[in-house]
C-alpha cells in the first residue's frame, strides 16, 4: 500500500504519519510505502500529484524487491493525502502498468469548487478550520482554475471503473460533506464502496488510537478492507 500523508499539501512529512503507517502495516499485515512528496508553496499544484503518481509507478516497478504483488496494489491517505490517493486511483485506470485494487480515503479533500454545509457548520472549534482550509488552498493553487481540475477536485472526475474504496469521514469535520459526496458518487458510478461517517469525531481522529477507541475501530475497518482486497 502506498500512503500519502495529510497536511493541506503544505505541511506534514514521513515522521508526522509514521505511527499511522505502522499501525496500518501491522493490522493489515501489508507493506506500507510512505511518500514524502513535495510541498507547497515552494511546489504548487500539480507537483504533489506528480510525485504521488511517480511514487506509485516506482512501487509498481520495484514490487519484487519490496516483496509485494504488483497486480494487487492499494493507495491510501488522509485529508490532502486522501485527495492524492483518490486522484492516483483515478489515474491508474488510464495506465495499465499500474494496477490499483483498493483506495483508502480518510476524511479526504475531494472538492475545491464549492462550500458545503459542513464547511460552515464546523468552521471553527474542531481542529481543522475553514480559515485553515482557505490558507491551504491559497498556498497550493496557482490560479482559481486549478480548483476545477479533476486532479485537484476528484469529485469532478468520471469515477466509472475506479478501484474499490474505503471512505472514512468525521461528523465534526469541515470536509465531512465533500467526503460523503465523493463516496456517494463512487457508488453511483458502480464502484464497491465501504463508507462510514464517524459521528462525533473530528478531522485527524484516525491517528488518535492511543486516546480514542473509535480511532482504533476505524483502523480495524481499514485493515479488514485491505486484507480482503489483497486476498481476493
TrEMBL record:
Keyword annotations: Hydrolase
Domain (Alpha/beta hydrolase fold-3) ranges: 2-206
Q: Which organism is it from?
A: freshwater metagenome
Can you say what this protein is called? Answer: Unannotated protein
Record-linked Gene3D superfamilies: alpha/beta hydrolase
User: Family assignment?
Assistant: Belongs to the 'GDXG' lipolytic enzyme family.
The molecular function terms of the Gene Ontology recorded here are: hydrolase activity
Q: InterPro entries attached here? A: AB_hydrolase_3 (IPR013094), AB_hydrolase_fold (IPR029058), GDXG_lipolytic_enzyme (IPR050300), Lipase_GDXG_put_SER_AS (IPR033140)
Q: Give the range the annotation lists for the signal sequence.
A: none
Amino acid at each position: 500500500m502506498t500512503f500519502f500523508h495529510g497536511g493541506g499539501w503544505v505541511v506534514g512529512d514521513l515522521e508526522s504519519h509514521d505511527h499511522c503507517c505502522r499501525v496500518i502495516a501491522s493490522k493489515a499485515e501489508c507493506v506500507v510505502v510512505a511518500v514524502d512528496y513535495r510541498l507547497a508553496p515552494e511546489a504548487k499544484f500539480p507537483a504533489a500529484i506528480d510525485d504521488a503518481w511517480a511514487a506509485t509507478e516506482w512501487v509498481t516497478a520495484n514490487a519484487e524487491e519490496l516483496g509485494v504483488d504488483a497486480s494487487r496494489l492499494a493507495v491510501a491517505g488522509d485529508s490532502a493525502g486522501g485527495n492524492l490517493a483518490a486522484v492516483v486511483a483515478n489515474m491508474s485506470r488510464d495506465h495499465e502498468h499500474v494496477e490499483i485494487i483498493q483506495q483508502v480515503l480518510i476524511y479526504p479533500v475531494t472538492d475545491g469548487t464549492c462550500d458545503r454545509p459542513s464547511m460552515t457548520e464546523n468552521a471553527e472549534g474542531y481542529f481543522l478550520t475553514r480559515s485553515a482550509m482557505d490558507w491551504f488552498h491559497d498556498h497550493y493553487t496557482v490560479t482559481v482554475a486549478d480548483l476545477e481540475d479533476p486532479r485537484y477536485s476528484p469529485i469532478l472526475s468520471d469515477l466509472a471503473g475506479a478501484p474499490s474504496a474505503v471512505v472514512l469521514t468525521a461528523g465534526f469535520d469541515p470536509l465531512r460533506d465533500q467526503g460523503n459526496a465523493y463516496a456517494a458518487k463512487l457508488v453511483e458510478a458502480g464502484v464497491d464502496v465501504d463508507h462510514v461517517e464517524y459521528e462525533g469525531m473530528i478531522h485527524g481522529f484516525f491517528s488518535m488510537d492511543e486516546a480514542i477507541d473509535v480511532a482504533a475501530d476505524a483502523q480495524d475497518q481499514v485493515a479488514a478492507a485491505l486484507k480482503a482486497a489483497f486476498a481476493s
